[in-house]
Design brief:
Two copies of one chain form a homodimer. Chain A is an all-alpha fold. The first copy, chain A, contains eight helices and no strands. The interface between A and B is large, with 46 and 45 residues. Chain A binds a DNA duplex (30 and 30 nucleotides) through helix 2.
Chain lengths: 226, 226
DNA sequence: GGGTCATGTTTACGACGTCAACATCCGGGC
DNA sequence: GCCCGGATGTTGACGTCGTAAACATGACCC
């Protein structure tokens, strides 16, 4: 990873000609330290979960003194919070990808059902692929403030739209629409954590996806039964 | 809290006559340090969650040097693990209490249904009453080993029996029995964490229990539909 | 009654989060 | 073109944490 890489793909400013001999940061000012720190901290979370998000280590990796971070973050909690936002962004992206990958079948009712299930799969897939990030995203410390994560809003609205579609296509009775977001979200969230940190950790890959499939069936059945 | 108090209610040994003037531990040997430390650490978890389980602070509260803990635990992780067992014990007790409180209605089918729902309520009730302990119980660090928590086995077998009862009373088709434990557990676990650490944290008490009730209905509907 | 081993204590080390004081340098006003 | 102020980064220090090594105490067995 070069120093120029960061979470948002923003390169830091170049003032004056770059010294090719030692372009690995000799400049006193970094130029994009905030993003660089977020990126480093996110890597830490990816590898070791929330406990691994250590301010000093992130600074070390960026090649900067630990206290420099305080020019851009309120402290460790604030840095951790920034990583949580990254995690939720990844989660939303995974759900979006899964839903977008549903091939049109010609039957809109079938597609609507599949898109809803795909959201659930995308959720679980992210948790399995990035357990450290997933855990960090739902860490209690530094709980997300309202309205501070457009990514979380995005994933929530994807869910809402999928549920509305189920109603629109007549797959789910309107009477069951209230609180369906919670009823759909909680089961998938729960199974992710039971697999990552709970008693389901011992299951092998096959048993896991079987359990996930069964769970989705139960939820769909409960939500959509007439 | 006196020094004699501990997780198992075991008083530590009294050798020789107790000095009434300073019975607050002047003896060199504590007598029941392991349990005293677990109790103190559990209090820390209860108040502040897993991050608050600090070995030195637990030792301080017991009135003992920090390194004394190493005579009874492998280190911080081992102490935390002991707290996790306490948490799971409390969780199982809460479920058991809730199930036992179901009043007999005369109709066994109704009672079976109510007992199952009561288990779910007991699960959530514990998470709401002891958020710090609940979080600590499902902390990744120091994940429970197989077979090392009889309490966890107990709560799991309560769930298994409740599901078997649903089948026995004809409330749930046998075809839906496989993997029902996971399908029932995950939703309740998920909603607890979404409320404690996730986006459902902002809901007031009324909205929460409504969401929980709705979730239980969806799960029951999905599990039991013919 | 004396030795032994479990159980506590003291001291020390490195890592962490954080604060205060100091250094560097970018950009705007003369 | 220069200079100065504020943004940005560094150094050094403090208290806390987990942990290890060396030492102290005393319960129990022969």
């Amino acid at each position: 990873m070069t120093l120029a890489a960061n979470a948002n793909g923003v390169n830091f400013r170049q003032h004056g000609p770059v010294d090719a001999n030692r372009n690995r940061r000799t400049r006193y000012h970094h130029g994009d330290l905030r993003n660089a720190l977020i990126s480093a901290a996110t890597d830490l979370a990816r590898t070791g979960g929330p406990e691994a998000v250590v301010l000093r280590e992130a600074a070390r990796r960026v090649g900067v003194s630990a206290t420099a971070a305080y020019r851009h973050f309120d402290g460790h909690g604030d840095l951790l919070h920034a990583v949580k936002l990254q995690a939720h962004a990844g989660l939303a992206a995974s759900m979006e990808r899964a839903a977008a990958a549903v091939p049109p079948s010609g039957d809109e009712r079938i597609d609507t059902d599949r898109r809803f299930r795909a959201l659930a799969h995308g959720y679980v897939a992210f948790a399995m692929a990035e357990p450290g990030l997933f855990r960090t995203g739902f860490q209690h410390e530094g709980t997300l403030r309202t309205n501070d994560s457009p990514e979380q809003v995005r994933s929530y609205s994807m869910l809402t739209e999928a549920l509305d579609d189920l109603v629109a296509r007549g797959l789910m009775p309107v009477s069951r629409r209230p609180l369906a977001e919670t009823a759909a979200w909680a089961p998938m969230h729960g199974i992710c954590l039971l697999i990552l940190d709970g008693p389901l950790a011992q299951l092998d890959e096959a048993a896991r996806s079987e359990a996930v499939e069964r769970l989705i069936d139960v939820v769909m059945g409960g939500l959509c039964r007439p």
